[in-house]
Amino acid sequence: MPTRTVRWLAAAGLLMATPFAVAGEAVRGQAAPDGEAQNRGTKVRNVIFINGDGMAAAHREAARLYHAGLDGQLVMDSFPVSGQLTTSPDDPESAITDSAAGASAWATGVATYNGAISVDPDGNPLPVLGGRAKAAGKATGLVTTAQVTDASPAAFFANAVDRAAQDDIARQYLEVTKPDVILGGGEDWWLPAGTPGAYPDRPAEDPGEYSRGTEGNLIDRARADGYQYVSTAAQLDAARPGKLLGLFANEEMFQQRAEGQGDVYQPVVSLADMTRKALSTLSTDRDGFFLLIEEEAVDEFAHRNNATRTLQAMGELDKAVAVAKAFAARHRDTLVVVTGDHETGGLAVEDVDDASPAEDGPFGVKGTPFQFRIDWTTTDHTGQDVPVTAYGPFADRFTGKHPNTYVHDVLEPLLTRR
Q1: 20 to 30 Å CA-CA from 36: which of 230, 292, 374, 411?
Q2: Domains along the sequence of the chain with CATH
Q3: Angle CA(318)–CA(321)–CA(322) in degrees, nearest 5?
Q4: Where along the chain is Mg(2+) bound (predicted)?
Q5: Would you state the pLDDT for residue 34?
């Protein structure tokens, strides 16, 4: 399909109507879940959707033992409602999803092929939750430790037949879906080749990182469109209310290397701080907001079978969840949902084994003399179900086991009802 055709269809698809249920009614003919009566008359003003990329039940359990202890809970597991999501894509070659297909299922309600960004299996662009929320008058934003144009955030705010089109995805953010807050990594995709930005091209820690955009200087274009551009923690903290673009790394906000070669997780600004700034900015809109939050490092370090860094990333994710939960506790018309797009690594929590690599344990169980280690079955994704936990009005919709497309079926009417 020609690029310009895809672009036009993306813009047109943004405003397509879809026949989903309205808030307060059963979804797709299903019986209303227990507790539905308490939702009647309730309006969800804000939705915070949090993706622990690559996170499934064992990741959460390992993090619980390490960060909270035998009798403790992660913040994400303290939510009153829990369920499960299946993750299968509609792909001709695989039953195991990637992040693009997984996030597209959430954002559109349609299962699609791996590598697709919110297009159907034939490559036709679909309306996306970020665009639908914006069209309904809400503020929108995305926060991630990945590139801001990587698969998961892109699926909520763009359309592409191939997830690799990150420069075109950035262009769509500015021209089509127009999120008010964009915070994360990926400066390379916003600048043309030969135009280094705040982060130098080909740094010693990763010479493969360099500016590579083909859509012109999108940072300058964002400024012209009224965005403040920031690239450091101090600048983010000082940013005034209004549209905000923050790019804090050439690519991801961490460095991943082959197993045993020393992955590094030292973001310029933490996920929790980006979340806090996004919430303070978006919450000024009286019509409410939609915010996507993602911790990408869980997936990337699990791909490297690095349990030490995976647990660190899980801890940082839970800090961001705590920020979101505290906001929702103060603003009772806010729904918070936490899940993962797929499982990565075939992670298992096991007893200590002297043969384990040092980065896989032993780890102490907080507050006890006990230890555990992490074992892996793969460096890729698996087909395991993922937990989903929810807090706030309509959280009860996430009870039970559902396909990942169900996320869209719940959130779409909440975000588009005026």
Answers
A1: 292
A2: 3-14+44-416 (3.40.720.10)
A3: 90
A4: 53, 150, 152, 294
A5: 40
